[in-house]
Write a structure and sequence with these properties.
2 helices; alpha+beta; two-stranded antiparallel sheet; 4-stranded antiparallel β-sheet; Alpha-Beta Plaits
C-alpha cells in the first residue's frame, strides 16, 4: 500500500544530535520503498479558497501555523506500522514532525 509522508518543520530543536540520521542515511535505509519525494519551499505557497462564488488567493501558507510542510515522501509499504517506523527514523522527526497518510491505490 502507498503512504504519503508529509514532512513538517518548525517548533523545537534536536535534543540529542548524535541520534539524528542524515537524510542520506535515511534514504539508504528506506531504499526502494521510497517511490518519490522532494523538498518544498513553504514560502512559495498560495492558499486557494472558494467562497460564495469568489476565488480567494492568499500568498503563503496560513501564518497561524507553527509548523509548515517542507517536503513529502511517497512510500510503498506492507503496513501502516512499517510506514510509521520509517517516518519515525526520518531526520525531521527529531525536531519537527512527519505525518503518515494512507492513500487509495490505483487498483
Amino acid at each position: 500500500m502507498k503512504y504519503m509522508l508529509l514532512i513538517c518543520a518548525g517548533g523545537g530543536g534536536v535534543e540529542d544530535p548524535g541520534d539524528v540520521p542524515t537524510i542520506e542515511q535515511w534514504l539508504e535505509e528506506v531504499g526502494e520503498r521510497r517511490l518519490h519525494g522532494s523538498q518544498m519551499r513553504p514560502g512559495d505557497a498560495t492558499t486557494v479558497r472558494a467562497r460564495g462564488g469568489e476565488v480567494l488567493l492568499t500568498d503563503g501558507p496560513f501564518a497561524e501555523t507553527k509548523e509548515q510542510i517542507c517536503g513529502y515522501d511517497l512510500l510503498e509499504c506492507d503496513s501502516l506500522e512499517e510506514a510509521q517506523g520509517i517516518a519515525a527514523r526520518h531526520p525531521v522527526a527529531f525536531f519537527g514532525s512527519v505525518e503518515v497518510r494512507p492513500l487509495f491505490d490505483d487498483e
